[in-house]
Amino acid sequence: MKNDPRFQPFDASKTPRFADIATFLRTPRHPIGPEIDIAIAGVPFDMGVNFRSGARHGPAAIREASRIIRQIHPTSGIAPFRLCNVADVGDATVNALDPAASIGLIEAFFREVHGAGATPIAIGGDHTIPLPILRVIARDNPVGVVQFDSHADTLDELLGTKINHATTFRRGVEEGLIDPRRTIQIGLRGSRFSENDIKWGADAGFRIITIDEYEKIGRDAVIREIDRVIGKGRTYVTFDIDGLDAAYAMGTGVPEVGGFSVRDAQVMIRSLQGKHLVGADICEVAPVFDPTGQTALNAANLLFEMLCVIADSRTNHASR
Question: Alpha-carbon distance 98 to 247, whole Å?
Answer without folding.
Answer: 33
